[in-house]
Amino acid sequence: MIRAWLSDERFVEAVEGVAPGDKGFRAWWIGQMGFVVRAGGRRFVMDPYLSDSLTRKYAGTDKPHVRMTQRVVDPGRLGRVDVVTASHGHTDHLDGETLRPMAEANPGMLLVCPEAIRPLAVERSGLPGDRVVGLDADGDGAVPSMFHGDGWSIHAVPAAHEGMDRDRDGRLLYLGFVVRCGGWCWYHAGDTVPWPGLAGRVAAHRPDVAFLPINGRRPERRVAGNLWGREAAAVAREAGVGMAIPGHFEMFEFNTETPDEFVSECARLGQPFRVLRAGEGWGASSALVEA
Ligand SMILES: [Zn+2]
Fold this sequence. Notes:
Elements: H1 8-16, E1 25-29, E2 35-39, E3 42-46, H2 53-57, E4 83-85, H3 96-105, E5 110-114, H4 118-125, E6 132-135, E7 146-148, E8 152-158, E9 175-181, E10 184-188, H5 198-203, E11 209-213, H6 229-239, E12 243-247, H7 260-269, E13 281-284
Parallel strand pairs: 3-4, 4-5, 5-6, 10-11, 11-12
Antiparallel strand pairs: 1-2, 1-13, 2-3, 7-8, 8-9, 9-10
Helix pairs in contact: 3-4, 6-7
Bound molecules: zinc ion.
């Protein structure tokens, strides 16, 4: 088992250790595509998976989900959480055993997810329906692509995992989110493979930071795949993001890759990057791209 860089109380202390008036951007990797972000006085948690629900669900099957990295923190002890995002309905991104304790500790938190999975998100989180916000990337029809919170906004962009699949009403099942808060902008890709126009859609927002999956896709895993490390590096470079941070590796033994390819391709392209360990944080004090 890989030890978390910081875990439990020490992790919470690190997140709590940011001064309330801090104008910087801080992010911590909490494993898989899960990130905690502090910016503009708000606390965001994106795609948290902080339980062993999948390990238990698949125990004794032909697809065992053996955990590789120690859990970073008990979701009920994470402290204040303002906004949680879930990019799609797969349990490693929308986990009831993570969301329920988080919601119990934070009755006022909002959960933002694809409109297509909103009923599932309400059920798994236990949050009242009016605390769960559904978005669709196209934003035509009844479902908006943008939500404005108090001092922050979230804009949905499509994701293809591996198809750009829709529900019966034509709403996208997989999304990425661009968040703006406190003068910062960041892109959380969710789970996606490359698709034509992806980098362009991201570039339009000029994000300072991008969180991108790098576990690629191998048919023998029999799960929907994601960007390879080289592709994540290329998307970041093409989109002009200030800092690329990889995710979606070192959670399950059957579905992981090393970040080596991401690192070498970022270096080759001149793309600034930072590979975090689970439980490790990174921050910036001034904007990484010109507005
Ligand atoms: Zn996933």
